[in-house]
Amino acid sequence: MSRYRVLIVGGGTAGIATAARLRRAAVTSIAVLGPSDRHWYQPLWTLVGSGQAWVKETRRIEAKLIPSGVEWIREAATSVDPEAQTVTTDTGSEIGYDYLVMATGLRLDWNGVPGLADSVGHGAVSSNYSYEYAPHTWELIRNMRSGTAIFTQPVGPIKCAGAPQKIAYIASDYWRRQGILDQIRVILVLPGDSMFGVPSWRHALEEIVERYGIEVRLISEMVSLDGASHKATIADHAAGTEEELALGMLHAVPPQRAPEWVAESPLANPASPFGYAEVDKHTLQHRLYPNVFALGDVADLPTSKTGAAVRKQAPVLVANLLVTMRGSGERKSYDGYSSCPFVTARDKMMLAEFDYDLNPAPSFPVIDTTKDRRDMWLLKRYGLPAMYWHGMVKGRV
Ligand SMILES: Cc1cc2nc3c(=O)[nH]c(=O)nc-3n(C[C@H](O)[C@H](O)[C@H](O)COP(=O)(O)OP(=O)(O)OC[C@H]3O[C@@H](n4cnc5c(N)ncnc54)[C@H](O)[C@@H]3O)c2cc1C
Questions:
Q1: What is the DSSP code (8-state) at residue 380?
Q2: From the CA of 41, how far away is ligand 1's center (Å)?
Q3: Which of 10, 77, 148, 333 is close enough to 103 for a disulfide, judged by CB 3.0 to 4.6 Å?
C-alpha cells in the first residue's frame, strides 16, 4: 500500500490550489488523487452559455497543473476510513495518509428532478452547469423569438448561487437588444424567499428584474420536466400549488449534494441532508478527525460555494494543516468570504462579496459594487480567468 504525508482527494480548483501552496511551503510526500485528465475553470461556463466565451478556454490538461514534486494518482476515491487513515479507489487499491484534504467538489444530481436527465443538452433544455451543455444554452437563447423562457434554481446549497440568475439577465439583455424582449415571457424560479441573502445586492437585483420585466417565482422550484412535450411543472411551496408551463426554452440547474461515498463516510455531517464533510467553519479542520481538512464545494460551510471562497480558504487550510503537522505556529481563521459575480447584462456585472455574517467584504472598497458596471464585467471575462490560471492554481493568490 502506498502512503503519503498529505493526500489531497480531488484535483479541481481546491485540490490544485492546496497542493501548490503545500509545495511552496516545502512539504514533501504529497499526492493528488483524482480521475479527470482535464481541469475546468467553471465560472466562465456562464459566458459560454451567453456565446461570449469558448468551452476550450475553460479547459486545461490536468497533468500540466499538478505542481512539481506532487504525485498524481489518476483514480477516483470510493471510500475513506479515517480510523485506519486510508482511502480506497475505484481500482481497489488502498492509499494511506498522515493528513487528508478533502477537495472532491460536489455531485450534480441530474436525476433529482424527474425528466431533467433525459432532456438536458438537447431540444429546449440546457444548463450551464456542464461544459457539455453550456454551448447549447447559447443556441437556445439566440434562436428564441417568442414564448416562455424559464430559468430555475433548485432547493439546497449549490455552487455559485448567482449562476441560475445571471444567465436569465444576460439572455434578457440579448433579447432586449434584438428588440424582442416584449414577446418573451421570462420566468425566474428561485427557492428562497428573496432574490439574494445579502440586503445591499437584493435591492439591486430587484431593480434588475424589473428592468427586464422578469417574472420572479420565490419559494418555488421545478419539480418535473417533460422535455419531449416542452412542459415544466413548477411548485409554489408558499401557496402549496403546482403549475404546468409550456416552455420555449429552459435553463435548469440540477439539485446538488456531496458525492455519495462522502455522504456515507464518517466525515459527513450527520445533521445535514446533503452529506458534506463536517469541518470547523473557521479552521476548516474536521470536527472528529484533526488530521482531516476540507475545503471547496465538498466542505459543509455556511457560505456560498464558489471558487472565490476557495481562494480565501486554501491559505487558511494550508496554514492550519502546517500548524497541525509541526505542532506549533500561528493558526488562521476563515471568515466565510465568498463572492457572487452577478452578470446583469452582456457587458455589465455587479460583484457581491460577503462573509459568514452577510456583511459586505469588498475587494475594491473605492468602487460601489452594488451597481452593475462595465469594468466589473471585463474583470469577470478577462481578469479573473487570468488570475486563476496564473495565480490561484500556482498557489500565488
Ligand atoms: C455555471 C457555473 C458558474 C460558476 N460561476 C462562478 C463564479 O462566477 N465565481 C466563482 O467563484 N465560482 C463560480 N462557480 C463555482 C466554482 O467553479 C466552484 O465553486 C469551484 O470549482 C469549487 O472547487 P472544488 O475544487 O471544490 O470543486 P471542483 O473544481 O469541481 O473540483 C472537484 C474535483 O474533484 C474531482 N473528483 C470528483 N470525484 C472524485 C473522487 N471520487 N475521487 C477523486 N477526485 C474526485 C473532480 O474530478 C474534480 O477535479 C461556478 C460554477 C458553475 C458550474
A1: I
A2: 8
A3: 10
Q: Could you give the CA distance from residue 62 to residue 166 in angstroms, rounded to a whole number?
A: 28
pLDDT at residue 367, rounded to an integer: 87
Please name which of 99, 81, 90, 88 lies closest in space to residue 8, comparing C-alpha atoms. 99
Is 111 catalytic? The answer is no
- In which band, very low, low, confident or very high, does the pLDDT at 364 lie, cut at 50, 70 and 90? confident
Which of 33, 36, 42 to mutate to test ligand 1, by most ligand atoms within 8 A of the CB atom? 42
pLDDT value for 45: 98
Query: Residue 325, by phi and psi: left (phi above 0), alpha (psi -120 to 50) or beta?
Result: alpha
pLDDT for 163 beyond 90: yes
- DSSP assignments along 274-308, one per residue: T--B-B-TTT-BBSS-TTEEE-GGGB--SS-B-HH
What's the CA gap between 227 and 224, in Å, rounded? 10
